[in-house]
Amino acid sequence: MANGRVTVIDIAKAAGVSKSTVSLVLQGSPLVNEGTRTKVNAVMRDLGYVYNRGAANLRQSSAKSKIIGVVVNDLTNSFFAELAVGIDLVVQDAGFVQFLANTSESLDRQTEVIASMREHGISGLVVSPARGSRAIDFKALVSAGMPVVAVVRPVPGAKVSSLMSDNHTGMFAAVEHLAKLGHTRIAFFGGFEDTAIFQERLAGYRDGIAAAGLGYDEGLVFACAPSRAEGAKAVARAMAADDRPTGGVCFNDAVAFGVYDGLRARRLEPGVDFAIVGFDDVIEAGTSVPALTTIAVDPQGMGRRAAQLLLKQINAGKAEAEAVVTPVRLVVRESCGVNRMKPGRRSA
Amino acid sequence: MANGRVTVIDIAKAAGVSKSTVSLVLQGSPLVNEGTRTKVNAVMRDLGYVYNRGAANLRQSSAKSKIIGVVVNDLTNSFFAELAVGIDLVVQDAGFVQFLANTSESLDRQTEVIASMREHGISGLVVSPARGSRAIDFKALVSAGMPVVAVVRPVPGAKVSSLMSDNHTGMFAAVEHLAKLGHTRIAFFGGFEDTAIFQERLAGYRDGIAAAGLGYDEGLVFACAPSRAEGAKAVARAMAADDRPTGGVCFNDAVAFGVYDGLRARRLEPGVDFAIVGFDDVIEAGTSVPALTTIAVDPQGMGRRAAQLLLKQINAGKAEAEAVVTPVRLVVRESCGVNRMKPGRRSA
DNA sequence: CTTGCAATTTGGATCGATCCAAATTATCCG
DNA sequence: CGGATAATTTGGATCGATCCAAATTGCAAG
Questions:
Q1: What is the mean pLDDT of chain B?
Q2: Which of B70, B121, B261 is facing A289, going by the closest CB pair?
Q3: Which of A129, A295, B5, B94 has the most CB within a 10 Å radius?
Q4: Do the Cβ atoms of B175 and B249 come closer than 8 Å?
Q5: How many alpha carbons fall within 13 Å on the CB side of residue A336?
Q6: Cα–Cα distance between B60 and B80 in angstroms, integer?
Q7: C-beta atoms of B257 and A287 within 8 A
Q8: What CDD domains does the entry give (chains A, B) (predicted)?
């Protein structure tokens, strides 16, 4: 109490026991007598004691720091914000707190924050890697035995666990949906070609095209930054061509909304003159006009699962890398032609 | 090195100096000889040394923990995600890391995470308080001398610093804009009536109405949850009335987009049949159709300023509560009637 | 009223870095 | 070269909790 900070020793003195006993109470040990426990707890409350985890961690393995790191490539993207919220939910319930850092796709930033988190003694890390991340960026962590879960994007070659959405199946289903509606010229909009996700989704698109008995046409693939503004430009390019598509699948919902914009700029009405399927199912997908048919990924659910996977590894003590693929599902709304539903019923 | 963890003592041994010297190197002290410093640094690199801040903090004041806490009421709202990003930017540059927790407006969660952060030794806290937060919720922190900055929402009676946007002036400007365009029946949509922000914005609306020489009509105020879905319902109520408004200001952009939806449901075109002004200037405001005229708040900028304010107080050592109001500005786009601009030029 | 055994409690030693006073080494100058 | 001064370096002591072996207490049986 001397300098304002209350320690176990102050509690011990005030409660008439030893600091060891106070420590046992703090840990909820069954060894301590019920009466003693009650008194110690009362004294702690009276003196306004604040547990000092830093001091405790000094004697314990870092697995007990009750801190996990979360590194995200773009928190301004609501997909990743949802992901972070999902993680937060689970870790809070487990009594952990999270260091959350945003890298804005900067590898340097990513390296810095991971180093900083290590210094602070995180028990594990969930990371949505910045573009261009390499296995070596996580080498130090892995060889120190720290559990690491990569989400959304894979890190080729790294011995870390991963949690990815089923990009191939999702895009396959999107194409299948358009093909069933009778579309024969289906475009693919958006995404950076040098990313693994793009390749997975493109492969799903190709396989979907093939499964529908249509011919794959490279000229119908319009890659671009996965943003709304670029999506609008991409569809403009598509519609300027000779043999126009009549519908398209998009790398993500942001691109899909950009396609809306681009169509309207040409006086075409999305969902009427052109069929669109998104990917992600962000919140706005359900409220936009027309409501967007899309592949639902449930980022918050992914966040929860990633956190659970990480906590499992932390508790197990050993970081056995495992790869999990989370299912996605097609949510049919109105952007491929209005399909009226009873109000109040959600689309499956 | 015994159990895998490298400590200052291992470094000292390997470099042939004392642990004190290693410590001085770690702190970048000018007392240590340049040659020694180089050698020690080299050894640290070779052995893969990881600084243990927990141990260091034990001997230092909590102001040097290099951790700040960030508590946000709703991270799924992109406004707050941007805010968090702004904070992150500044604290990362200052060599801090942030604990980021989402409360989902739950006071219990808020209390829990703040307690947890305290145990982990944060140097200060930026909080966007959950609805219904009271001064007592921050009492313990404040009396422990911890710097606290409340952002976006005030905490009545709490002796904490605050950083608020200029809600009154913003809404005043919004009303003024509509009045200048000739609107005489201007509605107010959205927001919870029991919040301080709602009251501030409503006051700005009233004063704007008065300044324009129009009469205040309580029947034109349509409070509701500040969400897109509720905004749509609110405008439906407004248009069902006898003496309809011809334009409206919205509690935030989400409500404004809801108003778009509600108008379209009645076959009215926003920006043509009805003028709308939002509040916040979220990213979608610039890309929606029609582009939304709104009051720009710049949440990322607020985050940066909040972080700077907090860091200033942490470095000063004493938490002198101060209140900062950040300016807002009207961004005119197309939702109050199209005003064409040269393409490529951004609206001011 | 012992003895034996289980239930509680306790005093160092310890984790990894910092701090401080004191020791050591280097440098300078008459 | 000696003594003073400046530049470096260093050995405990310390932060606040945990761990462990050892001590103490409680209680029932003999």
A1: 92
A2: B261
A3: A295
A4: yes
A5: 24
A6: 32
A7: yes
A8: HTH_LacI (cd01392), PBP1_MalI-like (cd06289)
Q: Can you tell me which residue has its alpha carbon closest to the C1' of nucleotide D7?
A: B31
Instruction: Tell which strand D nucleotides have any atom below 7 Å from a protein Cβ.
Output: 7-12, 14-20
Residue pointed to by tokens 């909009």: A189
pLDDT per residue as tens digits for the range A182-191: 999 999 999 9
Residue A219 one-letter amino acid: G
The band of B242, judged by pLDDT with boundaries at 50, 70 and 90, is confident
CATH classification for the domain delimited by A63-166+299-327, as one of 3.40.50.2300, 3.10.340.11, 3.30.70.3270, 3.20.20.30:
3.40.50.2300
Q: How far is A263 from chain B (nearest CA, A)?
A: 11
Distance from CA of A330 to the nearest CA of B (A): 23
* Structure tokens that stand for B159 in this block: 């002796």
Predicted local confidence at residue A339, as pLDDT:
53
Hey, what are B343's tokens? 């393409």
CA distances from B237 to A53, A94, B160, B268, B316 (A): 54, 44, 40, 14, 52
- Confirm or reject CATH 2.40.300.10 for domain B8-51, answering yes or no: no
Tell me which CATH code domain A167-297 carries: 3.40.50.2300
CA dist B173 and B184 (Å) reads 15
Q: What is the pLDDT of residues A50-63, one digit of tens each?
A: 999 999 999 988 88
Distance of CA A320 to the CA centre of its chain: 21
The predicted-structure confidence for B23-81, as pLDDT tens digits, reads as follows 999 999 999 999 999 999 999 999 999 999 999 999 988 888 999 999 999 998 889 99
- pLDDT, mean over chain A: 92
Q: Are A50 and A18 in contact (CB under 8 A)?
A: no
Contact between A129 and A110 under an 8 Å Cβ cutoff? The reply is yes
Residue A99 and residue A68 in contact, taking contact as beta carbons nearer than 8 Å: yes
Summarised one tens digit per residue, pLDDT across range A131-146 is: 999 999 999 999 999 9
User: Closest Cα to residue B283, out of A75, A198, A335, A193?
Assistant: A75
DSSP characters over B263-324: HHHTT--BTTTBEEEEEE--HHHHHSSSPPEEEE--HHHHHHHHHHHHHHHHHHSS----EE
- Cβ-contact A266, A237 below 8 angstroms: no
d(C-alpha A63, C-alpha A70), whole Å: 16
**Whether the domain at B62-166+299-327 and the domain at B167-297 fall into the same CATH topology:** yes
